[in-house]
Design goal:
Layout (H helix, E strand, L loop, with lengths): L8 E6 L4 E10 L7 E11 L3 H10 L17 H15 L6 E3 L5 H4 L11 H6 L5 E5 L15 H4 L2 H30 L7 H13 L3 H10 L2 E5 L4 H5 L1
Parallel strand pairs: 3-4, 4-5, 5-6
Antiparallel strand pairs: 1-2, 2-3
Helix pairs in contact: 6-7
């Protein structure tokens, strides 16, 4: 079988999502072959600075102008994620080869979330029809304590999967309790925020499983693999 030529150059794009991660790798091949595009993570828990959001509408490249109706300054965090998704669609020529979600924290995958109207950033990424989606084994739909036919790698880690589920419930409880305590301070007339409560709330929020994003990742690709370090799936992917 004739081996495909190796890429001869690489373009790395890093997107300003605020507190989060989003990287697009574009591999360029000789002889006019089609580029290959790999998206690694797409998420944020905190928007960039106000100055960045205010100046963005005046700095949009032509291919993003008019993508969002009545876009005004400052751009909202939700609009920013959609603009990034539109840019990914443009520079990848409408085709993602691989999507990699390194782990479920919100600052890594929130951008993959969809909306009921079908116009969320995750809907845009889904429309790029990725050939392959790579996710950690902890997101495998059979990674539960009652799994009967889980792959060997999953079976070996059943106890950890159960613990992970418990951690998500605990994180949600932390987030809710921090929000309650912050509101209680406001109700008591204390206008200043307690930094420790903000930290506590962030810890809970960032660790809660992002259901919409996870479900979209599980189903958007032509093929989905769940990997852990050294697994055959990781080497084959």
């Amino acid at each position: 079988m004739k081996k495909s030529p190796a890429p001869n150059s690489l373009t790395l794009r890093t997107y300003q999502v605020g507190f989060g991660d989003c990287f697009l790798l574009t591999f360029h091949y000789p002889g006019g072959q089609r580029n290959r595009n790999v998206l690694i993570d797409f998420g944020s828990t905190r928007a960039p600075s106000d100055a960045f959001l205010k100046s963005l509408p005046s700095r949009l490249p032509p291919h993003l102008q008019g993508k969002i109706r009545n876009l005004k300054s400052p751009v909202t965090p939700a609009q920013l994620m959609r603009l990034i998704a539109f840019d990914i669609a443009h520079v990848s020529d409408g085709q993602l080869d691989v999507v990699v979600a390194t782990h479920r924290h919100k600052d890594h995958i929130s951008g993959f979330a969809t909306t009921t109207r079908g116009n969320g950033p995750g809907d845009i990424i889904r429309g790029l029809n990725p050939h392959l989606v790579v996710m950690p084994w902890t997101e495998h739909p059979k990674a539960k304590t009652d799994a009967k036919e889980a792959p060997e790698a999953i079976t070996r880690n059943q106890s950890f999967a159960a613990a992970l589920s418990g951690m998500n419930l605990f994180a949600a409880a932390i987030e809710n309790e921090a929000a309650r305590m912050i509101q209680a301070r406001l109700d008591a007339g204390k206008t200043s925020r307690a930094p420790s409560l903000d930290t506590l709330r962030f810890t809970g929020e960032n660790n809660v499983a992002n259901r919409s994003a996870i479900e979209n990742l599980m189903t958007m690709g032509r093929r989905t693999v769940y990997v852990n370090f050294g697994s055959p799936q990781a080497r084959a992917a």
